[in-house]
Amino acid sequence: MNRLSARWLTGLLLCAPLLPLSATARAETAASAPAAAITAAADEQLHNELRALRDTMQDALNARRLDTLLNNVTDNVVFSTMNGDRIIGKDGIRQYFQQMMEGDRAVVKNVTAEFEVEALSHLYGGDTAVAFGRSRDRYELNNGETWTVTPQWSATMVRQDGRWLIANFHYSVNMFDNPVLTAQRNWLLGGGIGAALLLGGLGFWLGRRPRR
């Protein structure tokens, strides 16, 4: 056996133990690819279900279908409103809805909301999800005013008996820039101008009075 053949045989013997390992790695990679595809498909299905829930709740709110809203929340749901109230449970939501939008002393005549998400919901174990984003809301009040706000929102959903339910929903607005503050500023500004004109007119009238 010449020197070249000896080197080739030695290299083959050294690499032989690695061949099964290489085959195993290829087999594991091939097996993991379908598993990853299955996981991605399952997650996409969950995201589609969450999108459907968002659309259902948005349509129900805009159409004032309270029963549909309550049918898609947990029994002990926690709802933090834009005006600082914390509502707990389905009965609490029903009372709040009736107080704000029904009856002779209702505050809101009509509301139109469009919920936008900033990213895919965060999934935890396939039965819990956290979503967040902002909404474009238009409120028609019974006093004739119309407010347009873009609050931030976040929601926690749980999957029970094969369907997603909202367990927590939080609304918040910019406390330094919102329609209430704008209305107050306009009222104060208008009142200040009115007072200045009144004082100016009074001073002018007093200045023109004949001296005795």
Entry summary:
About 50% of the residues lie in helices and about 30% in strands.
| Percent of sequence in beta strands | 25-35%
Number of helices: 5
**What best-fitting shape do the alpha-carbon axes yield?**
elongated
| CATH C-level category of the largest domain | Alpha Beta
Question: According to CATH, what is the topology of the largest domain?
Answer: Nuclear Transport Factor 2, Chain: A
Structural class: alpha+beta
Level of helix content? 40-55%
What's the domain count? 2
User: How would a textbook summarize the main sheet?
Assistant: 8 strands, mixed
What can you tell me about this protein's structure?
Strands 1, 2, 3, 4, 5, 6, 7 and 8 form an eight-stranded mixed β-sheet that branches. The model is unreliable at 183-189 (pLDDT under 50). Helix content is 51%, strand content 29%. The protein is built from five helices and eight strands, in the order H-H-H-E-E-H-E-E-E-E-E-E-H. The chain is α+β, with helices and mostly antiparallel strands and 212 residues long. The protein is elongated and about 60 Å long. The protein has helices spanning 3-15, 18-63, 66-71, 89-101, 179-208; strands at residues 73-80, 86-88, 108-117, 122-124, 128-141, 146-149, 152-160, 163-172. The chain folds into two domains: 38-173, Nuclear Transport Factor 2, Chain: A, CATH 3.10.450.50; 177-206.
